[in-house]
Structures are given as structure tokens and as C-alpha cells.
């Protein structure tokens, strides 16, 4: 039968498309059921069985609580810094002059954190206070660099006017996209103009964490108002010299301020516990990784019964009992 009316043709085509979509959706939902996650307890862990009966145990960090993320673990009043392998290597940045730049890289995954440093510091600082190790254990990939002329990177120091350009080259060389910049103090002369430079830069960046940075006076209110990046402005309570920087950055519409109590200019070094807890909380609002805890060769039944045990001994163990940890910390501190 040949149908002439365009209206009837349209209806028949519609019915056919509808049918195909229904079949496709059924198929998708069927195959999803086969791989469905099996929740094993309240600790946000689940086991994904595979065909051989092995269990891929994953821990999802705080998936259920949208409020406070977990606190860090404390061991005898000290922060329990996870043991994470730090890959240290040099790269060459081709700028006005070639720079050999030292990189400390940790973690896996496709969400990156770039850590710059202040005048008296280097990438080693982020290792010393455990920031790199925490970032890796939370499921991020992080790159701490020695800026040119600092730490183990080669001279010359980059001129202020070339800061943004140099940082662009670094980011290209490291092939970073989907990343967050952590930029304390002196490194502001790289990161602030980079953020302001163009909308292209802003699209690559998913978060900005300036810590009492320099170089904020070179831009106007209208510049700050145009920035669309989620921004966590960090400063130490006792750091009075950088008030104007905070006032400028506050004009970024999607910004929030973190005042670290009883801390000076290098507030992340004075109060690493507070800094790391708040850092994680902010990062979770930008991107919350799912990370693989371990992969064990064993039957599913045994995996299920022992996985809560794994959680208890895991280095990445996450507690939702914020208050008890804080109390624990304070009581240990006062000893
Ligand atoms: C950095 O340089 C110092 C001395 O200049 C050296 O002892 C150290 O091993 C270097 N670090 C790295 C990671 O290359
Ligand atoms: C502030 O920090 C210093 C060490 O940086 C410490 O000795 C002092 O007890 C702290 N004060 C308060 C009120 O926490
Ligand atoms: C689980 O492990 C126990 C030993 O720990 C073993 O005897 C048992 O057969 C295992 N169960 C399965 C289903 O493999
Ligand atoms: C893990 O810890 C929870 C409480 O923190 C406890 O109820 C549970 O029994 C522990 N699991 C194992 C296997 O020890
Ligand atoms: C959290 O810790 C406090 C103090 O240690 C305790 O009283 C409370 O029962 C804990 N809450 C949970 C949910 O474990």
C-alpha cells in the first residue's frame, strides 16, 4: 500500500521512531541491571562483581552527604598523611628562554590540581605539609611545580608582565584541562593575570584557590566581576597586609572566603588541618572523584563480608563524624 498523504507518513514515521526508542531503552536498562552496583554498607562502598567472580571494591567518598565532607585522620595529634608515591621529574618550558621546571606529580585520573607556591617556598612545601598526598588519596591528580628561579627550577625568574603567558605555556606542556589552580602569595603574579587574560583560560579552569595572592591591584572591579570560575579565597586571620587583595577578589561573583583562624600569611602551613579539610570541601563542590580502593581476587561472597573490614583499615578511610574528630584533635592538641 502506498500512502500519499504527508500527514499519514508523518504519523507512521513517528510510531516507528517511538518503537525503536522503546526497544533501545529496554535494552539499555537490561544491560545496566547486569552491572548494577551492589551496595554493601553505609560507608559508601560498593562491590562491582565481574564475570570471574572477582570483586572490584570501590569507595565513593561521602556520596550521601552533601554537606560537610569527612575530616582528616589524626594519629597522636598529628595528621595522618597517607603514603603516596610522588613522581618527581623535570620538563622544559619553551618561553623567551628555556626553563627546566621541576614537577612533583601524584595521583591518577582526569581531574587535575595545579599547585604554585609563594616567595619563600617551593613545590616541596606541598609535599612537606601533605597536600600532594591528600589530593592523591582523595582521587585527584596533582602537579606541584617549582616556578622559574625557585626550588630546583632553572633561572631566570619570569617578569611580572610575562606571568600569564608563561603559565599558559606550562599548562599546555602539562596538557592540563579540567583543573583547579592553587596559588599562594607571590604566584598570584602568574595566576591572577592568567585568570583575567581571556575567556578561553576560564573555560579550562574549574576552580581557583588564591591564597593571599599578590598582583590583585592590577585589575579593576569590572575585571573581577567578569570572572566566572568558582573561587575559594583563602587568607590567614592574622595576615593584615593582604586585606586589599581579599577585597578585590571578593568581587568575583562565584567566590567564597575562607579565613583560617590563628594563622599568618602562609596560613596553609600554620594550620594544615583546617586548610586541608576546607580544601577538600571546596574541591568536592567542583568535582568529586570516585576512586578505586582495591582490586582483590576472591569470590564475591567473601568480598562482601570482608569489605567493611577493608574500609576500617583503609588509609583513605573517611569518617562522617566531624565533631568527634575535631574534639579528638583538640584534646590531643591540648596535651
Ligand atoms: C633539588 O636540588 C637539591 C640541591 O640543589 C638536591 O639536593 C635535590 O636532590 C634536588 N631535588 C630534586 C627533586 O631534584
Ligand atoms: C595559635 O597558634 C600557635 C602556634 O602557631 C599556638 O601556639 C597557639 O596556642 C594558638 N592559639 C590559639 C588560640 O589557638
Ligand atoms: C570464603 O573464604 C573461606 C575462607 O576464608 C572459604 O573457606 C570459603 O570457601 C570462601 N567462600 C567462597 C564462596 O569462596
Ligand atoms: C567497622 O567499623 C564499624 C564502626 O566504625 C563497626 O561497626 C564494624 O563492625 C567494623 N567492621 C569490621 C569488620 O571490623
Ligand atoms: C560522634 O562522636 C561523638 C563524640 O565522640 C559521639 O558521641 C557520637 O555518638 C558520634 N556519632 C556517630 C554517628 O558516630
UniProtKB/TrEMBL annotation:
It comes from the Eukaryota. Keywords: Cytoplasm, Glycoprotein, Hydrolase, Membrane, Signal-anchor, Transmembrane, Transmembrane helix. Residues 304-335 are annotated as: Disordered. GO terms for molecular function: hydrolase activity. Residues 325-335 have a biased composition (Basic residues). The chain crosses the membrane at residues 7-28. This is Protein ABHD14A. It comes from Adineta steineri.
Amino acid at each position: 500500500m502506498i500512502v500519499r498523504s504527508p500527514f499519514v507518513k508523518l504519523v507512521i514515521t513517528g510510531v516507528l521512531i517511538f518503537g525503536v526508542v522503546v526497544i533501545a531503552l529496554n535494552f539499555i536498562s537490561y544491560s545496566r541491571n547486569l552491572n548494577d552496583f551492589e551496595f554493601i554498607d553505609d560507608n559508601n562502598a560498593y562491590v562491582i562483581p565481574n564475570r570471574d567472580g572477582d570483586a572490584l571494591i570501590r569507595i565513593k567518598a561521602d556520596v550521601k552527604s552533601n554537606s560537610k565532607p569527612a575530616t582528616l585522620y589524626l594519629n597522636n595529634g598529628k595528621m595522618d598523611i597517607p603514603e603516596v608515591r610522588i613522581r618527581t621529574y623535570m620538563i622544559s618550558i619553551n618561553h623567551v628562554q628555556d626553563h627546566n621546571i621541576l614537577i612533583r606529580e601524584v595521583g591518577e585520573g582526569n581531574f587535575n590540581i595545579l599547585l604554585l607556591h609563594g616567595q619563600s617556598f617551593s613545590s616541596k612545601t606541598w609535599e612537606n605539609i601533605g597536600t600532594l598526598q591528600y589530593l592523591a588519596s582523595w582521587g585527584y591528580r596533582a602537579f606541584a611545580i617549582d616556578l622559574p628561579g625557585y626550588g630546583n627550577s632553572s633561572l631566570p625568574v619570569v617578569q611580572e608582565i610575562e606571568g600569564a603567558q608563561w603559565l599558559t605555556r606550562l599548562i599546555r606542556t602539562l596538557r592540563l584541562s579540567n583543573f583547579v589552580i592553587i596559588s599562594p602569595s607571590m604566584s598570584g603574579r602568574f595566576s591572577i593575570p592568567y585568570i583575567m587574560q581571556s575567556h578561553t583560560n576560564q573555560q579550562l579552569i574549574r576552580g581557583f584557590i588564591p591564597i593571599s595572592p599578590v598582583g590583585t591591584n592590577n585589575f579593576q572591579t569590572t575585571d573581577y566581576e567578569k570572572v566566572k570560575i568558582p573561587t575559594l579565597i583563602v587568607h590567614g586571620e592574622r595576615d593584615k597586609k593582604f586585606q586589599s587583595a581579599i577585597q578585590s577578589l571578593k568581587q568575583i561573583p562565584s567566590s567564597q572566603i575562607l579565613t583560617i583562624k590563628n594563622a599568618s600569611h602562609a596560613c596553609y602551613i600554620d594550620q594544615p588541618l583546617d586548610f586541608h579539610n576546607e580544601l577538600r570541601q571546596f574541591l568536592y563542590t567542583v568535582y568529586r572523584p570516585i576512586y578505586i580502593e582495591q582490586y582483590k581476587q576472591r569470590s564475591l561472597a567473601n568480598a562482601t563480608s570482608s569489605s567493611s573490614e577493608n574500609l576500617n583499615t583503609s588509609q583513605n578511610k573517611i569518617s562522617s563524624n566531624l565533631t568527634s574528630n575535631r574534639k579528638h584533635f583538640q584534646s590531643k592538641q591540648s596535651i
